[in-house]
Records
---
Amino acid sequence: MDARSFAIRSIVVALILALVTAVALGKLAWIQLFQGQATAEAATRSRTVPHTLKAQRGRILDANGMILAQSVERYTIVGSPKAAADFIPVDCTKQTEGNCHAINGKPVGATGPAAVARILAPTLGMNQMELGAKLVGSNSYVVLKKDVTPQVKRAIDKLGLAGVISAELSNQRSYPHRDLMGSLLGGVDANGKGVAGIEYMEDAALTGKDGYEVYQQGMYGQQIPGTESKSQPPVDGKDVRLTIDGDVQWYVQKALADGKAKYHAGWVMAVVQEPSAGRIIALADTESKAAGSAEAKMNPPLVVTQTFEPGSIGKTITLSGMLQEGTRQMTDKFTVPDRIKVDGQEYHDATEHGPERWTMAGILQNSSNVGMVMASDKYTDQQRYEYLTKFGIGQSSGLGLQGESKGLLTPPSAWDRRTRNTVLFGQGYATNAIQLTNAVATIANKGVRNQQSLIKSVSDEDGKPGQSPSSQATRVIDEQVAAQVMNGMESVADKFKNVAAVDGYRVASKTGTAEVAGQDGRLTSIISDWVGVIPADNPRFVVTVVMKDPQGTFGGLTAGPVFAQIGEFLMQKYELPPSAPRTDAIPVQW
C-alpha cells in the first residue's frame, strides 16, 4: 500500500468518525434542547417506586385492659444477590474509621456474597455458608430471615451493608398469656388475618388499613434520601375489649383442672355470666389450646362446641313454664312414688323411695322425675316446646363464635310418647353450656332474657374505648314467677350445703345428671352439671359447671363443689357484702 492510498483511507475513516460524532452530538443536543425534560422525567419514573407502610393489627384486651393479643414490631431481613456480587468490604483505617467493615477487629478477607455473609451471619444468628448460598444469584430480592426483633434490625443497620441488605417491617402476633382462653382467642394466618376464635370473629375491627410512601431508589433498591414525593400513613386496627375478666378466667381454668383431677373426669367446662347484662365473665374448659397455635386455630372451645342433655337442670324451665301458664303453683301438694307409668312408658327417680309428700317446691328440691311428670298433666306439648325455645334452647347464642353448636330441639310433632315427658326433666334434647347458663340467668334476672355478649367495646378512631354494644332483652316469665323459681332453687342449694355452699352467701342452684353416648355409641357416659346463682338474694353471677364421666356421678357431688370454689373466689374478688338470712322459703313438704 503506497502513501497516497493510505492517506485516502485515513481520510475516509476520519470522515466516517466525524460523521458519527456529529450525529451523536446532534442527537445529544436534540435531547438536551428538546427532550431533556422528558428524558429526565422518564429516568425519575423508572427510579420511583411505591412502598407499603404496614398497619398494625389491633389488640385484644380483657375487661380490665390486660393485653391478651397484640402485634409486636418485627422485621423481615432481605438481601440483594445482584448487589452482593459487587460488594467489596472497606478495610478499617484511620481514614475509613466509622465507615468500614471488620470481623472481630480483623479484615473481612473476602468479597462478594461470601463477604456479606461473614459480616451479617453473627448478627442474624445464621450459618455463614447457608447465608452466603442465599446471596448468590442475579436477582435483586431474597428473604434471608423473618420475625427479626427491632434490636437485631438496629444492629444490622450499623454493619454498613446498605444497598445490599434491607429490612421490611412486619407484625408478629403475640399472646402474652397463651394458655389463658387460647382456643377462645384463636389465631391468625401467615398474612395476619384472623382465622379462628375472637381473632376471626372481630377481624374486620382488628384489621387496619395499610399506608404507603413513594420515593426514588438506587440501582440496588436502596432509598435515595430526600426523594420522597407522596405518602399516606397507615391506620392501625381497632382494639377489642372483651367482657372476660382475665383474673376470673385464670381462676376458673385452675378450678376446672383441679376438679378434673380430683374426680377423674374426661373433661370439665364452665361459664360465668352476669345475669343483669348478659356479659360473660369467664368461658373455660380443660381442653383449651395455646392461643395462636395450630391446635387453637383448628379446635374451637369445647364449651362452645360440646352439646349434652342438661338433665334435671331442665326442670327449672319446666317449672317456670307451668307457673307462668298457671297450671301449677309452688305450694301444690303431691304424693310422689319413686316410679310411675304413663302411656305405657315407665319413669323413675334417681333413687328408690317410698311415697313422699312433696310440694311443687319439694319436687324441684328432690329433683323428682316422677313428680315432674305428675305435675305436667295440664302442661301441653306445645307449651313444653315454646318455653324451651323462649329460654334459648336449640338456638344460637348470638355470640358469633366459630363452631358453636345450637344443640338439638325437635318440634312436638316429632316427639314420641316417651320424649314428650323426658323433655320435662332435661332429656330428649341437647344444649350447650352457654345456652344453659343464659336460661338460668333469665330466671335470676327476674324473668328477662338478655342477649349474651363477649365484646365489651371496640375502640374508636382515636383509640378510645367505644360504647358497649346494646343488649337486647326479652321478657320470658313474670318477675313473680322468676322469684318463686329462685326460691325453689335456693331450697335445692340448701340440700347440698355440706358440699357446695359458699360461706356467708345464699345460693340458688339446680343439679343435673344425664346419660350420653360414649365412644362406642351406647349410653355409657355420664354428664354431671350444676348451675348456681350467687348471691341468690341479689344475683350478680350465674356459674355453670359441666363434667363428663366424673367419679361420683351426681352433679351436686362433683360439679357442685367446683361451683362453690369458683363462687367463693367471685365473692372475694368483687368484695360483695354477705347475704341477708333467708326467711321466705316455700315449704317443700306437706
---
Amino acid sequence: MNNIESIRDLIAQSRNAEALDAVRASVSDSADPPAAEAAYLACLACVRMGAFAEAQTWYGRLDLTTIADASLRSDALCVAARISKLRFAALKSVDEHRAIRHAVEAFIHYKKAFDEYVTPYAAINAAAMAWIIGENAACRQFAHIALIGSLGLAGVWPCATRAEAHLLLGDVTAAQTEYRAAYGLARGQHGLVASMRRQLDLLAVPGSHDCLNEVPAPVVIAFTGHMLDRPDREVPRFTGTMADAVARRLREKIDGYGQVVGFSQAACGADILFLEAMQEAGMQTTVVLPFSAADYLETSVTFAGPAWVARHRKVLANATRVVHATEERYLGDDVLFQHAADLIQGMAFLRASELATTPHLLVVAQSGAESHLGGTVATATRWNSADWTSDCIELEPTVLPALQAERQPMTGEPMPSRRTIHSFMFADVTGFSKMPEEYTPAFVDTFLTSIRCVLDAMQRPPVDANTRGDGLYLVFDSANDAAICAHNVLAAIRATDWTALGLPQDTTVRIGLHAGPAYRTYDPVMRKDTFYGSHVNRAARLEAIVQPGQIYATETFAALLAVNGETGFRCEYIGETQLPKSFGTAPLYRVLRTA
C-alpha cells in the first residue's frame, strides 16, 4: 500500500487525526509542495474533524491544475463547497449576511465541481445552494439534471437525491415517495437518516415538513430502573416474580417507539430487561458500566443468582457498544454510580443531537421509592427537574401503603466517597519549541499573565492549576467551567502579538478536555492539594493530538457538558481517534461556542 492509499484507508476508518499527521509527515520529508491528492486528503480530514480554518489552508495549497483526474478535481471542489456549506449552516441563525456569503461560495464550488465531472451529487448540492441564495432558475436546472442523472440508480443516496430534486422542483408527493423509499433502505443506519433530515431542515422548502415525516428520527432513550431486591431487603419493591410482567411492558413500550437507540447500565432487574427487549427487537444498545466489569458484576448482579449473571453477560456480548465510565475498581465510591448515570444521560443527548432529534428518559420505578446517589429516583428527579421528556413504567406496590414507611435503604448508607468527579484541561502553545531562547522570559511573562487574567475573571476558578513552559494543566469542579476557561484562553492567545516574541502571528494553542473520577491529595512538595488518577493521565494524552487553534474533548466530557444543560456550547463529533502512548482509541468531540 502506498502512502496515499494508506492515508485514504485511515480516513475511511475515521482516523482523521492520524491521516492528517501522515500528510504532514510526507510534506515535511520533501522540499516540494504537497502532492495535490495529499493536500486534498488533508483538507478532507480537517473537514471531518471540524477544523475548517486548517481545511481552508490545505485547500489553498491544492493546485487543481496539477490534477489530471477530473473526478479528483471535482471531489476537491466539493470539499471546498462543503466547508462553505457547513459555515453557512453554523451562521444562518446568528449572522444572516455572513451566512449567505458562505452559501454563495458553496454554490460556486459545487457548480465548478459539476462542470469538472458531471455527477448527481454535485448537481443536487448545486441545486440546494442555488435555492438558498435565491437563484431559482439555476436551482431548477441543477435539480432536473440531478433527477435525470439518478434515475435507475439503486441505493439510499440515489433515492434521497431524487427526493430532494422532486422537492426543489415543487413535486412534494413524488418527493415523499422517494424519501419513504430512502428511509426503508436506510432503516437502522441512523446516520444516513440524520443527514437527510438535516438537509431538509437546511433547505426549508415548502413541503419539507411533510417530507420530514417520511424519514423519522429514532427515539433516543436514556434508561434507568430499579435493580431486583437484595435478599436482605425488608420491604419488597422489585421481586424476581415481577420480572416477566415488567419485561412484557418494556417490549410493548419499545414496539410503540419504532426505531430506538438505547443507553443503560446492566444491573440485574430493569436494566437487563430493557437491554434484552431492545436487543431482541434488533435495536442499538450502549451499556455504560460505572467501574470495572468484575466489581460491577459483584455489586449489581451476582446476588440475584447465576441465571441473572448469565443474562448480564449475554446483554453485554450483544450490546452495540460497552463503555466503562472508569476501568478502575469500585472501592466503595458510590459517586461512580452517579457518574455513570450522568454519562448515560449525556451520551443520549449527544447521540440525539447527531441524529437531529431529542432524547427521552425511560424509567422503571416504584412510586415513592427512596433516592440514592446515582440511583433510579435521583436520575429521574434530575431529568424531570429540567423539564425534559420522560416516560415511566411504575412497579406495582407489593405491600399495603401503611407499611411503606418501614422500608430500609437498599444498600445501607452510602460510604464516604474518596474519589470525586472533575474536569481536566491540558493546553500548550504551538510552535513554542521553535522560539529563539532569548525570547523565553518575555514569552513566559506574556503567556502566564494572559492565563492569570483569564482565571481572575472566572466566577468559579479552577480548583488546581499547574504550568510548565508553554504547558497548562487546570482542574475544575464542572465541565461548564472548563469549557468557558478553554474558550477564554483560546481568545486571549489569539489576541496576543506573538511576532514581538519571535513567533508567527498565527501562533495559537491546542486544548484538550476530559472528565472523570480522581483522588484529591495533598502534595507536600508544592504544599497544596492536587489531583491524581488514571483519568488525569488520560486527559494529558489528549492535548497532543488536538489540531492548532482547536478545543477537543473526550466523549465523557462532552456528555457531562450536555447533561448539565449548558446552552453556550455545542460538541461536534470528530470520530474515533488513536491516543498516544498506548492509551487506545477514544471518540472525540470539538467544543464550540453556540454564539
